[in-house]
Specification:
single chain; alpha+beta; six-stranded antiparallel β-sheet; two-stranded antiparallel sheet
Amino acid sequence: MIMEKQILASLNELYPLHFIKIEPVTNEMFQCIARDGYYYFRMTNYKSYDEQLEEVNYTSFLSKEGLCVSPPIASINEKVVETITVNNKEFMAVLYQSAPGIHLPRNRWNSSVLKELGRQIGRLHKFSQKFEELHPLKYINNWYDNEEYAFLKYIPEEEVAIRDIAEQTLSAIKNLPKNHSNYGLLHGDLCRENILVDENANLTMIDFQDCERHFYIFDLAVPIYSAIEYSFVGGGNIVEYGETITKAILDGYQEENSLTPEMIDKLPLFIRLKEVFEYSLMHMYWDKEKLSENQIRIMNHFRMRLEQNHTLLTI
């Protein structure tokens, strides 16, 4: 509560919006209630100031181009990335307009939603190419330079089979040919939690904090993986569900952008990358001495599936 009071005071000093209340959404994100409506506030040291500024300039550009993203709001100092002090620690802060819509329940994360998502990702990548042409990147990393992809640093040495799969996956993707049409700046984490859908089925993408330079198809692999892993709620065959949503997102994407057959064939490889990524994050962030029963269950589930080389998606 003390921290929230400090944040609220800082917000009212930096932004002329008369904030009344803030509520934590995650450790880094807060919903802010002002006299004229709702906003979201991010407070983090996850990336450097220069990286965050480049990311925020990117999302501002996307918003101006007409893509449905939450635009950042400048402070009274005309800065879109500010510095605040909370509990004697400095944090970088960004304020965003609230996006319309809701996080859809799992049983509504279906092929029609994913086809529209694919279409919007196609538009996103076209605008990303334009952004990089106008503003060559200086601070946002290539994917393989980010710590989260240092799989062999975090996956235990005794898990030989999974380490081999991780190394083979990284090597295969790093060796793929890159060009202007298949590789560039993307969102990086388009899971259900980062998509809002309004009553007219319009989508808004939020939380670009994990944006990076990567093969564009990774932005399609993430929502397909997320849907298969977390959103299937029965009422059919999960293999057929995976095939249906994959076709939907690819069809939507190709209404706005192009994918070569060679890249489409690599989609299962990128889903495997995402799966190993998630497993490595468990080792990176979870306290192994204080794992809950649910964390143990999830980790064992991933480990068994990876060791058995189970494929979530075939094309």
